[in-house]
Amino acid sequence: MEKRDRLYEGKAKAVFATDDPNLLIQYFKDDATAFNGVKRGTITEKGVVNNMVASRLMTIIEAVGIPVHFIKRLNAREQLIRKVAIIPVEVVVRNVVAGSMAKRLGRQEGEPLPRPVIEFYYKTDALDDPLITRDHAMVFGWATEAELDWIMAACLRINDVLVGFFANIGVRLVDYKLEFGRLAENPQQVVLADEISPDTCRLWDMVTGEKLDKDRFRRDMGGVVEAYQEVARRMGLALES
Predict the structure, then answer these.
(1) What is the CATH number of the domain that holds 32?
(2) N vs C: which end of the chain shows fewer Cβ within 10 Å?
(3) Do both 20 and 74 map to the same domain?
(4) Whole-angstrom distance, CA of residue 44 vs CA of residue 166
(5) pTM
(6) What is the pLDDT along the chain (241 residues), one digit of tens a residue?
(7) Strand arrangement of the beta sheet that strand 13-18 belongs to
(8) Alpha carbon 175 to chain centroid distance?
């Protein structure tokens, strides 16, 4: 597989073309941002940890029948992925009140939810990713009703799998962001895209409540590198360089 021109560089990843028009290489960076880029920094080896964690989780999700853009991990920082057109609707799955939900609704952070709550956000940094409804997504043509139905069902299935997976290693999956895209080679096919990692999840130790995710960076708590590495260690992943 020949790596070619850089097509895109975001806050946490860069994407490169290959000699196959339907395949890309996704590179994980150590750059860290919060609050849509307002806060910036570097987390040593973050890209390596996130690549390993995301690769393992994508493999687990695909194994239960949810199609994903991930094909394989190439090396410490790169994945081979299927080319997709990202649907501009970010999905947040919440199992515990935290973050923006606590602030918006005046609830105590850490309050368990009786069932998962699924929220949609319009993916646009310029507007700070506003919370939207299904109707907004359909009316403005960001996603069809059938796509949203499939995404909702996929999110609930993914949540069942990931909550159990993390519980088995002593971690509470508080909430997390998912992105979906339409395959370039078959635009009728929606797949899970982007990544699932300590960058995109809230992960708390089930006994102590210690945060093992990017909130440590957002809130200047320290121990960010150690938290990311602890997640990988519990997943049985050996860090590469």
Answers:
(1) 3.30.200.20
(2) C
(3) yes
(4) 24
(5) 0.94
(6) 799 999 999 889 999 999 999 999 999 999 887 766 567 888 889 999 999 999 999 999 999 999 999 999 999 999 999 999 999 999 999 999 999 999 999 999 999 999 999 999 999 989 999 999 999 999 999 999 999 999 999 999 999 999 999 999 999 999 999 999 999 999 999 999 999 999 999 999 999 999 999 999 999 998 999 999 999 999 999 877 5
(7) 3-9, 13-18, 23-28, 78-82, 70-73
(8) 10
